[in-house]
Amino acid sequence: MANVIPEKVKKLWDEWNLRGSILFSLFLQILLIFCAPTRKRRGNTFVTLIIWSAYLLADWVAAFAVGLIANSQNDMKNKCEMPVQTEDLLALWAPFLLLHLGGPDAITAFSLEDNELWIRHLFGLLIQLIAVGYVILQALPSELWIPTSLMLLAGIIKYAERTRALYLGCLGNFKASMLPPADAGPNYAQLMEEYTSKKIAHVPADIKIEKEFGGGASADYAVRVERLSDLDVVEGGFKYFNIFKGLIVDLMFTFQERKDSRRYFFARNTEDAFKVLEVELNFMYDALYTKMVVVNGNIGYFLRFVCSTCLVASLERFAAHHKQKNGGHPPNQGKMHPFDVYVTYALLIGAICLDSIAVIKLIFSDWTIVLLRYRRAKEFLLKTRKRLTIYRIGSWSKTFGRRWSNSMSQHSLVRYCLKERFKWIDVTVDWFGLKDILDEIQYKEHIKVPKDLKIFICEALKEKAKKAEDSKTAREICSGRGDWVLSQSACQSLIWSVDGEYDEILLLWHIATDLCFYEMPSSTHTDPEVGHQPSKEGSFDNRREFSKFLSDYMLYLLVMRPTMMSAVAGIGQIRFRDTCEEAKKFFRRKDIISGGKFKESSLLSWFKKFSSERKKELMQEKIWEACAALLLIETVVKPIEVKGDRSKSVLFDACILAKELKKLNERKRWKVMSEVWVELLSYAASHCRANTHAQQFSKGGELVTFVWLLMTQLGLGDQFRVEAGHARAKLLVEK
């Protein structure tokens, strides 16, 4: 039978598979230590894909290489071809792979689910330790036993650190580590026994109760707004991380914690508040996805010192051994492949460099800063870190200096319906399960979160929080889905639009926002792209833009992040698809899009003839035309009375809402709409499951997650269950 694989290829594979695997494993470690931290700062799909691939390959390649080493030892011993020094080198390489399996400090888990597999990693540690031990024992007696033993110790420490980090990041263990001691409360039985005995003895006795109340809420926001230094931001973030990290696992908080947090955040301006939230979320990210909890502390520092010492000592011992052998010209010196020596030096120097980078990052991390005792030392580290960041080149400087992506994705239903693909493309990608990915690439847009939008959201939430005198009122406020705003704005005629399910409300207001945003230009609307003339006060313009930004962002969450919105989405996916189908059908009938002409333009001539600016203008014109056509439809009869309720489309219900909104004067219209969108955003933030927020830490972060945490800090939500502390009961006996 003829060999399918040529002999030359087989020989090349046999000679280089082990060396290639080891060097590739080192390359993956380098890639991970530099790229892994960027995933919390960039919501870039391509970067995430690279990190995910490297994360999966790193474990597989290292384990594969250990197997190759053991196999090479057996094959060469059976053929009596194994030079002594080559066998020693193979034994030295094996612990390096254990070191690589430990991974860099910057990433232990790619997703939350990886933490749940900590037992598998513990089992993997034992198996790989046995495999590496077998390789080392096969090589005994070895001239390189000292560097091999040192590397083995370093590898065990690294792998154990990773397993420990996964164990602590597992949500069950994460919750268990924060549970307070069991509290039976005051001794009720003993008090009542004494009280009863006094009564039986006819001794005048009474019980006096002194309750520990949380106090009113008015004092929480009657404080002076103060600016924070960089150090104050880090310390504030760490303080509230330790208090509120239990949010991730649905722990409850006391009135003292609520009061303290409210007082602190009411005293902050929006910029400082968001900085503190960034630091707080960054600590949560480190606790769940990195080794930072493990390597910080006395034991962690000691193990890091031992590991670094082992690496440096291994290099020194190997270099001394190699120099001695070269100088002494041993009989079998020529049998050691020179490239193997270079590979060994690459592994040793690479390991030391990676460890040095990890140590430097640890020294300048927020964790080290908050653990230092002296303020001057903390400020010195912060200033030095800031200088190092400034000297980085180009856009990477800005990326390195921030703790989240500071971006929000946008998705528009009208734009989605107008950028229609060929049917055969949809069928093909859907067959491979790639339709959602293609939709995200083609239709999703990114914008930086405007500073004014942050201020608007923060101030709106503070106003709501001022009304939350107690946690019961706070829960009622958080349950609002636009009805609170409409009631307070005297817009009772619009209450019907917020009466349905959450996904229905969101789609209704999204389409209505687009119809109002893209109204035909008039004398007061001169901007051809966005259709408005800048206002001197800025309020009208800002509210209008905020409504559009939040509308597109919330639709993105509903359609492209269904897992995150699953707790509130209902049948959002079905309703979105039905609405899109009705919109496309309507646009085709009005010749806004047609079966062939628009598609050909969008897929062929679109890219050949027009610049990006021209394409943008053409799409804007299509949107203008589509929105105008929708508003021209008479809607005197409700759509459900004509179509029935089988289709879940809300297209023409949104037209009715838009026409109702257009009856308001522009300033009031956009004021109401922007506040409704903040209420819809805060409802989603407080009702999404906590673990779905935690999953976003490693994906660049989401604005809705910041809103979720800010609401908690302001005392909104249902996490505050303890209204008062222990009642202090006294048994008073009259003499």
Strand percentage, roughly? under 5%
The neighbouring-strand order within the major sheet is 1-6
Distance between the termini: 111 Å
Shape: globular
Biggest sheet statistics: 2 strands, antiparallel
Q: What is the radius of gyration computed over CA atoms, rounded to a whole number of angstroms?
A: 32 Å
Class per helix and strand makeup: mainly alpha
Kindly state the percentage of residues in helix.
55-70%
Kindly give the count of domains: 3
Mean pLDDT: 83
Task: Please provide the count of β strands.
Answer: 6
Helical stretch tally: 34
Protein name: DUF4220 domain-containing protein
Domain DUF4220: 52-416
Keywords: Membrane, Transmembrane, Transmembrane helix
Transmembrane segments: 16-34, 46-70, 90-110, 117-137
Structure description:
The structure is a single chain. This protein is mainly alpha-helical. The chain has three domains: about 240 residues, no CATH class; about 35 residues; about 250 residues, no CATH class. It is about 65% helix and about 5% strand. Strands 1-6 form a two-stranded antiparallel sheet. α3 packs parallel to α6, α9 crosses α11 and α24 crosses α25. The longest helix is centred in the N-terminal third of the chain and has 34 residues. Keywords: Membrane, Transmembrane, Transmembrane helix. It comes from Vitis vinifera. This is DUF4220 domain-containing protein.
Question: What are the salient characteristics of this protein?
Answer:
67% helix, two-stranded parallel ribbon, 6 strands, mainly alpha, 3 domains
